[in-house]
Amino acid sequence: MVNLNGRKARMLLVYPDYTDRDVKGKVSGGNYSEGLASISAVLKQGGHQVELLHLLYLHEEAEFKEKLREKGKFDVIGFSIRTTAFPDAQLYIRWTREVWPDVFIICGSYHCTLVPGEVLAVPEVDCVCLGDGEYAELELCDKMSAGEDYTSIESLWFKNEDGSFIKNPVRPLFADLDRIPIPDFDLFDYDNLESSKVNTAIVMMSRGCFFNCTYCGNSQFRNVYPNKKIYARFRSPQNGILYLKTLLEKHPNIKFINFRDAIFNMFPAWFDEFIELYKQEIHLPFTGNIRFDILTEDTVRRMKEAGCYTIDMGLESGDPEIRFKYLKRNMTDEMIINCSRWFHKYGISQLTYNIIGLPHEDIHRALKTIKLNARIKSDRTIPNIFYPYPGTKLYDIAKEAGLLTVGVVTKP
Question: How far apart are CA 194 and CA 191, in angstroms?
Fold first, then answer.
């Protein structure tokens, strides 16, 4: 048990932030993480200290250990782990334990929520966080500071000395995102992020999504909560504007806003109020994610008036059977084509996300994706290779089809 004898905790957040493992020696760039910035804001509000080790490329042992020593000693070191980064994270965690044998190691983010037992089974890991981590980690740091037992904190799993797990229930979601402080943008070298270099801010007004796309972790993330019906939530329109004004005051070089919410137009009433406030008080050029099947021409028109210059859409597959049967995206070709006409009409460029290598896809079905992009005259397409995230329905479909071997996804 960690007992800080009344002293506030010092936490280091480690963020493996790269997809190209061959890039070496980057000194600036990387991506903003809303989750880490939010955790930092909550912990700092509670009086604790938080710093970030932003890993922009795959580190070898000596370099990682050197950077860890340069950061100094911390009470808690937290690792943000997405599924594709888990093999590298296991190495970083092992090296962290070798540098700081007594530090408390906690892991969180997507992979920990999907398969917490797999992460907690890593020998050097003391704890994993399932779901939203701000207030679970605040409670952890507060109890460490007070010298109290923390092994019953909701949303956290712990490891006993004999290797068995303490599996605490996940705390209920809170509906009001306005209770969360504005994210700690200062946690990052913000002006040197990849987006900031092109005068763009990555922002999020919401959490969660109420759709059930089989390839997306959201379909499984909501299931860990006892009150999953409120999984999809937005800050109030007024608080969202405060968020943006705070960011722009700190970083006046920002000229574009990139809303990374799962679906920007998920709640029409919220969207209608927010977009009017945005037009009046911010009115910077912006982009965001939308869905074809909940879009209206009036929404497109209002987005254009507020400054929307490009829109991101999940086309995913041009084959209707793949979309309906395997992806659970119930939108027809005609619906997609009709929505695209509105974007052309109002002068908003289109970016479409596409997935290739899907279960039961063949060359003929893959070609339908190319053809549908051509029919809607997409301005830009992003092809993504299907990655089977554990716990998702499409992972199970791929496994049942014999396309996966046990353990191939996450073991280094």
Answer: 9
CB 311 within 8 A of CB 351: yes
Beta pairing, strands 127-129 & 156-159:
antiparallel
Summarised one tens digit per residue, pLDDT across range 258-281 is 999 999 999 999 999 999 999 999
- DSSP collapsed to 3 states, 293-332: HHCCHHHHHHHHHHCECEEEEEEECCCHHHHHHHCCCCCC
What is the structure's pLDDT at 406? 59
Q: What secondary structure, in 3-state letters, does the chain show?
A: CCCCCCCCCEEEEEEECCCCCCCCCCCCCCCCCHHHHHHHHHHHHCCCEEEEEEECCCCCHHHHHHHHHHHCCCCEEEEECCHHHHHHHHHHHHHHHHHCCCCEEEEECHHHHHCHHHHHCCCCCCEEECCCCHHHHHHHHHHHHHCCCCCCCCCEEEECCCCCEEECCCCCCCCCHHHCCCCCHHHCCHHHCCCHHHCEEEECCEECCCCCCCCCCHHHHHHHCCCHHHCCEECCHHHHHHHHHHHHHHCCCCCEEEECCCCCCCCHHHHHHHHHHHHHHCCCCEEEEECHHHCCHHHHHHHHHHCECEEEEEEECCCHHHHHHHCCCCCCHHHHHHHHHHHHHHCCEEEEEEEECCCCCCHHHHHHHHHHHHHCCCCEEEEEECCCCCCCHHHHHHHHCCCCCCCCCCCC
| pTM (2 d.p.) | 0.92
Rounded Cα distance between 272 and 265, Å, is 9
Please say whether the dihedral angle defined by the alpha carbons of residues 29, 30, 31 and 35, taken in this order, is positive or negative.
negative
Tokens 């479409």 sit on residue: 352
For residue 182, give every residue at least 6 positions away whose Cβ sits within 8 Å of its Cβ, in sequence order, or none: 41, 242, 243, 246, 247
Q: What is the pLDDT of residue 398?
A: 93
User: What's the confidence (pLDDT) of residue 407?
Assistant: 53
